[in-house]
Amino acid sequence: MKKSIPVLLIAAASALTLTGCATDAGTGSAWGAGIGALAGGLYGGHGSDALIGAAIGTGIGYVVGNESDKKKAQQMSAQSQPGYAHNETGPLGGTRWRLVDWSPKSGKEEFSGKTFDFGRDGWVTTTTTHRDGRTATDRENYRVVGDKLIVNKGDYLVNYRFSLQGDQLTADTSKMRTILRRI
């Protein structure tokens, strides 16, 4: 048991330092890892038990935190009446961008261009120009929390990790990378 005390203290300290994550899913994962490591180490008494506990706790914490993120997104969508606004627009509020590149591409894209207008009110308006010249617009809620761009509408929520470098915005998920240019 004495050998596992340092492991438990490190796990607890790690969880406490990571509580400032940008999303509830990240925060839940961090807390779950710390609590799982503590429980695994105390129950089994070995470092490997602490690691197993941390892995299980991370998964449970992520699921709980992600559900909290989804609930916030649904609340924001429910409040999406004209005039609704919030102040989590970060550096994107009041900016306009053009899609430059994205990957992976399916090869079946039916549009010739997209622009994104990030309002100061927490709404992003996407204008899609189709190959035949038609245009379509879509509005979604967005929030900027740290280096996360959180976009939602109705029952979906997408967390992008984004970075700004001059007039270029790069947004990544585990499935896609998007590059926008300020216009």
Summed up, what is this model?
The chain is 37% helix and 34% strand. It is α+β, with helices and mostly antiparallel strands.
State the domain count: 2
- Average of per-residue pLDDT values: 80
The rounded Rg comes to: 21 Å
Which fold does the CATH topology of the largest domain refer to? Answer: Lipocalin
Instruction: Report the structural category.
Output: alpha+beta
Helix content: 25-40%
Proportion of β residues?
25-35%
Give the low-pLDDT segments. Answer: none
Instruction: Output the strand order for the largest sheet.
Output: 1-2-3-4-5-6-7-8
User: What top-tier CATH class of the largest domain fits best?
Assistant: Mainly Beta
Largest sheet: 8 strands, antiparallel, barrel
Tell how many strands the DSSP assignment holds. 8
Q: What's the N-to-C terminus distance?
A: 61 Å
Order of helices and strands: HHHEEEEEEEE
Helix count?
3
Q: Using the alpha-carbon principal axes, give the shape.
A: elongated
